[in-house]
Design brief:
The structure holds two protein chains of two kinds. In chain A, a hairpin with a 2-residue loop joins β6 and β7 (416-424). In chain A, α8 (176-204) packs antiparallel against α9 (208-229). Chain A starts with a helix and ends with a helix. Chain A has 20 helices and eight strands. Chain A has helices at 2-22, 30-36, 48-51, 64-71, 131-135, 143-147, 155-170, 176-204, 208-229, 251-273, 277-283, 291-297, 301-306, 313-316, 337-361, 379-384, 386-397, 438-450, 455-465, 469-473; strands at residues 91-95, 107-113, 116-123, 238-239, 242-243, 405-413, 416-424, 432-436. Chain B is of the alpha+beta class. Chain B has a single domain (10-175), classed as NADH:ubiquinone oxidoreductase Nqo5 subunit (Beta Polymerase, domain 2). Chain B is built from four helices and five strands. Chain B has a five-stranded mixed β-sheet. The longest helix of chain B has 17 residues, at 9-25. Chain B starts with 8 loop residues before the first helix and ends in a 44-residue tail after the last helix. The chains are: A mainly alpha, B alpha+beta. The interface between A and B is large, with 43 and 42 residues.
């Protein structure tokens, strides 16, 4: 071994001497000279004698394909994986919690091989504010202010599912008008949520204009929410016993206006995206979840329906009188991002159709239950009667008590099965309130969808799952 | 505990009532054949049948087998798992698992009692991979151990957090928080 090294040194030593002789002073080695040379500042040294001759003979596989690659004729950038890949080639990358396309504070711990994701672990909890613990210190009537802040994209659904769970324990009857108002608001909220989704999905895969358009139509809906509840989000409008207030005067005209404006916008989205080759490339066959994976991980809502699982709680366990209205449940076949897009776009149409049916059949009546245990006396009575004033005061200070027991209630939120499990010990506050957020399950299922795909597809998949981190961390 | 706060007394009575149901249940199975097939092999079960859901209470020892039977019986979609701290009741904790049969459709809620000192119940994440995160959450917030879980670590709280906040005896407010310029407010 030492002998070989010595002979090589001697040979290269000769070459080194030759270089020093030929180059001007301060330019040792060919590569350095070449990189440092700036046009016009100095004379380029003569390098020809060290380069061309015999260089091609050094190629190990001198076939026509390799030579073509060398000459730049063939651009061969298909990344092919070595079957026996070395562990050392894996690279660990953190994506988030401040990454813009994680839509919140989701952190993904990834092991990459080149641009291919080999393993991914979602890390959550950055938005955890202990809302389930907070719920135990709030009265039953104060609960909606708490839950409405969980999934902040669909606050009406949070309020509805909580109120339904409490009413299940209370056993109170809700008037038909209150039920219809609830369905109207939640279905419009579904449209607003899906519009936000299509806007951000478009933006995440490069269609920036989609972001602006989606926001535009969503704004019409938020204006209506503001008119009805006073707030654009975190409404505290749906409460145990009914809703906070009746619909304002002129709500029929507003809905009619929405029924024109929103479908017109959705028509434009179809024109922008449906045939767009870049959109199709980034969505077709990307982020696939099989039906078996959906069932195992508890993936529900549009994500499960895109995989072909016919599961919609509005059909399976109808709540708040939604079975009175006619609508279809759109289903996908492939479970990829494109199917999730089509399912959500169709759901917008179905929800607008439900809003039209409610507009045509809105029943007259009270907007909250007549049960005086949960509903304060009317404003007029408070002026006249001391007992009514005391009654009103007691409901809003110490609250009403709920019979001991446990109840599970779930509704179809824009993201999937939104469930609430409440346990009452008979007091004025919940003994335990647990919220099953659909996004929690979707974050967990993300590794199944993105393992062994490219990192660019992760962004598309993550956006298509429509996770809301307020729903995940609670 | 302040007098206006709820106590677990009502819940203790409820548990006693369900115990009576369990004694009766050993003699006759429910009218619903599908539910009878699930609870039949397990003597510790008691149940409540409603229109849209079946609620089955079971001992921790038979919990895993019951869930496996339910999975074979059509309840193949995992929905939820959470813990409840009933404090001053025996067993103190409860793990509540919710499964769904999408074909029927029917919801199944499995309530399994877990003893208070060193609470542990065998994992179901081998049957439903989706139970993984939910069991981590129950461990994080209640301190319930799930033997057999692949990665039982804190999920919502930081790793160095002490205690399990959703327990009823967790000392809320024990961590002092110094608000900026709070000394000026008097």
């Amino acid at each position: 071994m030492t002998d070989e090294n010595q002979t090589e040194e001697v040979e290269t030593g000769d070459a080194a001497i030759a270089v020093e002789e030929a180059l001007p002073e301060g330019t040792e080695g060919r590569r350095v000279t070449h990189d440092m040379w700036v046009a016009g500042t100095e004379e380029r040294p003569e390098l020809r004698q060290f380069t061309d001759e015999g260089s091609q003979e050094m190629l190990p596989d001198e076939d026509e394909k390799n030579l073509d690659i060398q000459r730049g004729v063939v651009v061969d950038d298909d990344f092919e994986l070595d079957d026996a890949s070395d562990e050392e080639e894996l690279q660990v990358i953190n994506m988030g919690p401040q990454h813009p396309s994680t839509h919140g504070v989701l952190r993904l711990h990834m092991e990459l091989e080149g641009e291919t994701i080999r393993r991914v672990k979602p890390i959550i909890g950055y938005l955890h504010t202990g809302m389930e613990k907070t719920a135990e210190t709030l009265t039953w009537l104060q609960g909606p202010t708490n839950v409405t802040r969980m999934d902040y994209i669909s606050p009406f659904h949070n309020e509805l599912v909580y109120s339904l769970a409490v009413e299940k324990l209370l056993g109170v009857e809700i008037p038909e008008r209150a039920q219809a108002i609830r369905i109207l608001m939640t279905e419009l909220n579904r449209v607003a949520s899906h519009l936000l989704w299509v806007a951000t999905q478009g933006m995440d895969i490069g269609a920036i204009s989609m972001m602006i358009y989606g926001w535009r139509e969503r704004e019409y809906l938020l204006d209506f929410f503001e008119k009805v509840t006073g707030l654009r989000m975190n409404h505290n409008f749906i409460r145990p016993g009914g809703v906070a207030a009746d619909l304002p005067d002129g709500w029929e005209e507003d809905i009619e206006e929405l029924l024109v404006k929103v479908p017109a916008g959705v028509e434009e989205y179809h024109e922008i995206l449906d045939e767009n080759p870049i959109f199709l490339d980034r969505t077709q066959g990307v982020g696939i979840l099989t039906p078996a994976e959906c069932r195992a991980f508890g993936v529900t809502g549009p994500n499960a329906r895109a995989s072909g699982i016919d599961w919609d709680l509005r059909k399976a366990f109808p709540y708040s009188g939604i079975d009175k209205y006619e609508f279809e449940v759109p289903l996908g076949q492939h479970g990829d991002v494109l199917d999730r897009y089509h399912v959500r776009m169709n759901e917008i149409d179905e929800s607008m159709s439900i809003a039209r049916q409610i507009l045509e059949t809105m029943p007259a009546g009270d907007y909250r239950t007549e049960d005086r245990k949960v509903t304060p006396p009317p404003r007029k009575r408070i002026d006249e009667s001391m007992e009514a004033l005391i009654h009103h005061f007691k409901i809003f200070t110490s609250g009403f008590s709920v019979a001991p027991g446990e109840a599970w209630q779930s509704v179809e939120s824009p993201r999937g099965d939104l469930g609430v499990y409440v346990v009452s010990a008979g007091g004025a506050k919940p003994w335990r309130m647990h919220v099953r957020g659909p996004s929690f399950a979707h974050v967990q299922a993300m590794p199944a969808a993105v393992t062994d795909t490219l990192i660019a597809d992760l962004v598309s998949t993550m956006a298509s799952m429509d996770t809301v981190l307020g729903d995940v961390d609670r | 505990m302040a007098p206006d706060e709820p106590t677990a007394e009502g819940l203790t009575e409820e548990a006693a009532a369900s115990g009576k149901v369990a004694e009766a249940a050993e003699r006759e199975l429910p009218d619903v054949p599908a539910l009878a097939a699930i609870v039949g092999p397990y003597p510790s079960t008691s149940w409540v049948v409603a229109d849209d859901e079946w609620v089955v209470s079971v001992d921790a020892a038979e919990y895993h087998d019951l869930v496996a039977t339910a999975k074979d019986g059509g309840f193949n979609m995992f929905i939820d798992l959470c813990g409840v701290d009933y404090f001053r009741r025996d067993p103190r904790f409860e793990v509540v698992l919710t499964l769904v049969d999408t074909a029927t459709p029917m919801r199944l809620r499995v309530r399994a009692g877990v003893a208070g000192d060193q609470p542990e119940i065998v994992t179901v994440s081998d049957l439903f991979p989706g139970a993984n995160f939910y069991e981590r959450e129950a461990y994080d917030l209640f301190g319930i151990d799930f033997p057999g879980h692949p990665d039982l670590s804190r999920i919502l709280l930081p790793d160095e957090w002490e205690g399990h906040p959703l327990r009823k005896d967790y000392d809320v407010g024990s961590v002092p928080i110094q608000f900026k310029e709070s000394h000026k407010v008097q």
